[in-house]
Amino acid sequence: MKFVTYLRVSTERQGQSGLGLEAQRAAVAAHVLGRGQVVAEFVEVESGKRADRPELVRALAEAKRAGAVLLIAKLDRLARNVAFIANLLESGVEVTAADMPEANRFVLHIMAAVAEQEGRAISERTKAALAAAKARGVKLGWSIPERASEQRQAARKGAAVNRARALDHAENVLPVIEQIRSGGASLRQIAAELNTRGIKTARGGKWHATTVRNILTVENGAEARAA
Questions:
Q1: Neighbours of 189 (CB within 10 A)
Q2: How far apart are CA 90 and CA 55, in angstroms?
Q3: Are 31 and 100 in contact (CB under 8 A)?
Q4: Cross-referenced SMART domains, in alphabetical order (predicted)?
Q5: What percent of the residues of the chain are helix, what percent strand, and what percent coil, each to the nearest 5?
């Protein structure tokens, strides 16, 4: 049996230090032992709340290409979101978690619901704590006038990060688009095939002819600038 492993940590610090990654690698290695071999590994440094995961897109595409199982250490490494995991399970790629290899699709959906509820509870507790602090007169975040300059810098940085993420996603998904287009498919047909394969747009949505055209336009523009 062939496996494509997907490892995820939530912060750059964890990604650089290996904190969390080694434990995940150990878990998936123990699962693979005696069952088969790992043919590819993909590592993502991204919050579990985000649906735009370029490395996950690559992992799913490689698993489908190789006829492999997408293997993760724990279900919550994918996301604390039922709809997101449901879409993955319907992508045509077999997905399994090392901590519960016997779990079927029904069990995975239940675990996803529990993980989502856990994430919601954490968010609600954080909001309640911030509201209580604000009620006591504590100034929070950007409400401090002295941090206005930081706010502007953060906004510029956020915009740059979003542009970089969009370009990364375009680079990751372009080979799949080119492969489909090589058979003479139209933009609408390419979009339909991407949706069938469970590949999401950069914002985690469905593909349309216009979004496919945007990817091709971005890549053509990048090539022209490089030339």
A1: 15
A2: 18
A3: no
A4: Resolvase
A5: 60, 10, 25
As a whole number of Å, the CA-based R_g of the chain is 20
Q: Which pTM value belongs to this model?
A: 0.49
* Tokens found for residue 65: 């290409």
Residue 10: active-site member: yes
Residue type (1 letter), 139: K
Token pair 């080119």 is found at 178
pLDDT above 70 (res 227): no
| 91 token code pair | 């992508």
Pick the most confident of 90-104, 168-182, 202-216: 202-216
Of 77, 105, 103, which is closest to residue 5 (Cα–Cα)? 77
Q: Which two tokens stand for residue 25?
A: 């690698």
Distance between CA atoms of 160 and 147, rounded to whole angstroms?
Answer: 20
Q: How far apart are the first and last CA of the chain?
A: 43
- Tokens at residue 55, please? 């490395």
Which of 106, 96, 57 is CA-nearest to residue 74? 96
Residue-range domains of the chain with CATH:
2-110 (3.40.50.1390), 142-226 (no CATH)
Q: Report the C-alpha gap between 96 and 216 in whole angstroms.
A: 33
Q: Please state, as a whole number, how many other Cβ atoms lie within 10 Å of the Cβ of residue 82.
A: 17
What are 45's two structure tokens? Answer: 């440094």
